[in-house]
Amino acid sequence: MLRRKIKDNIYWMGSVDWDSRLFDSLVPLPDGTSYNAYLIEGSEKTALLDSDEPHMVKEFMEQLESVSKIDYIISQHAEQDHSGIILQVLEKFPEAKLVCTPKAKGMLTDLLMIPEDYFVTVADGEKLSLGDKTLTFIHTPWVHWPETMVSYLEEDKILFSCDFFGSHIASSDLFVTDEGRVYEAAKRYFAEIMMPFRKVIQKNLEKLAAYEIEMIAPGHGQIFQRPKFIIDAYQEWALGAPKNTVVLPHVTMHHSTQLMVDHLVTALVERGVRVEPFNLAVTDIGKLAMSLVDAATIVVATPTVLAGPHPYAAYATFLANALRPNAKFLSIIGSYGWGGKTVETLAGMIPNLKVEVIDPVLCKGVPRQDTYLALTNMAEVIAEKHKENGYV
Ligand code: FEO
After folding, report:
1. What is the dihedral of CA 32, 189, 147, 120, to 10 degrees?
2. What per-residue confidence (pLDDT) applies to 25?
3. Which residues of the chain, if any, have pLDDT below 50?
4. What is the mean pLDDT of the chain?
5. How far apart are CA 162 and CA 164, in angstroms?
6. Which residue intervals of the chain bear CATH 3.40.50.360?
7. pTM of the model
8. Which site from 181, 323, 330, 340 is most exposed, i.e. has the minimal number of CB atoms within 10 Å?
9. Ligand 1 atom at minimal distance to the Cα of residue 220
10. Contact status, residue 308 vs residue 340, Cβ threshold 8 Å
11. In angstroms, what is the span from residue 80 Cα to ligand 1's centroid?
């Protein structure tokens, strides 16, 4: 794809990755993604914001053939999907300076071995004049690494946000055309890489409130011509109260745990609690992460295997602990054959979660009447706790 005009002298560059289905060998990409860079031609200087994913180098260098000079490469984030071909760009434009935060300088040196002479570091709030256009650099740590910053183009009121406000969508539409689709993709993206830092994100959102933003141009996905839409969504995800929802990651081997899950789902729904069950044998882990953004309660359902939780349940629990969702309650249900330490093992895997643990329900073999009664009671307790706390 060729570079595309956003406004006078401002262009989208980069690539649309239609085929990728997994990022970092971890994050599912059901809709592919894009790696967005931006070119700003000021009356005196030209700046390139970010670059591209290394495997897209050929396409990016072809786009650069129509660019006569680059004075500044602005690296907003050191991760390779944005910084991966900076060295090749510097080879083509050796007079360019590489502008980044002091922290990013260290990371870019470690990751890409960029020579010291190219770097210019910028302080939080520092400005860079391109002649008739002025960039202000705003340090926004943890969106998504500690070194990240965003760039505000004063005259055009555009915020270039890199990972912040991004979404993994491959599309030929440069601008958002379907907010519902983008909301879902952006929430998934927030869950997968930003949820653990929601307190810092809250501070970053407060910082951005000082700027009049008419457009947000992120590093992945489409450009927002209605920035309020995505800023409001981030406010909700980062600051909102948990919802009257139970996330229920589950796995079963001989169907006993599945019977318990089915009973609990019915009992919760009867009590007005929303349930999002995920069969870990087949689920998209990104969907599970997305549900963790605002669920008040997590219930992990697992059989006991080799004296502990099923490995899929252990994976989901490890992931939930790492993502640090805002859930307030947690419990465990499942069937076992003769013994084991399923509850102890899972409980030891969630030190990051500030949750009240609701009494687990385990049963030996197939669930019987007492098991179903205990699960009904668990549903009652969860519904009551959600109600007491005003979760809707
Ligand atoms: Fe899109 Fe954190 O890189």
Report:
1. 40
2. 86
3. none
4. 97
5. 6
6. 245-386
7. 0.95
8. 181
9. 1
10. yes
11. 7
40 touches 9 (CB < 8 A): yes
* Statement: 4-239 belongs to CATH 3.40.50.410: no
Ligand 1 is surrounded, with C-beta below 6 A, by 77, 79, 81-82, 144, 163, 219-220
Atom of ligand 1 nearest to the CA of 148: 2
Compute the distance from residue 220 Cα to the ligand 1 centre, in Å.
8
> For residue range 289-324, what is the model confidence (pLDDT) as tens digits?
999 999 999 999 999 999 999 999 999 999 999 999
Amino acid at 327: A
Estimate to the nearest angstrom the gap between the alpha carbon of 79 and the chain centroid: 14
Pairwise CA distance, residues 86 & 91, whole Å: 9
- Look at residues 66, 77, 79, 55 and name the one whose alpha carbon lies nearest to residue 13: 66
Q: Which amino acid is at 117?
A: D
Q: What's the CA gap between 178 and 14, in Å, rounded?
A: 22
| Ligand 1 closest atom vs CA 162 | 1
Which two tokens mark 190?
């927030």
Please report, as a single letter, which amino acid is at residue 162.
C
The confidence score (pLDDT) of residue 353 equals 96
The rounded Å distance from CA 304 to ligand 1 centre is 37
Q: Which fold has domain 245-386?
A: Rossmann fold (3.40.50)
C-beta separation of 54 from 310 below 8 A: no
Q: 181: part of which helix (H) or strand (E)?
A: helix 179-189
Which secondary structure element, helix H or strand E, spans residue 277, and what is its range?
strand 274-279
Q: Whose CA is nearest to atom 1 of ligand 1?
A: 163
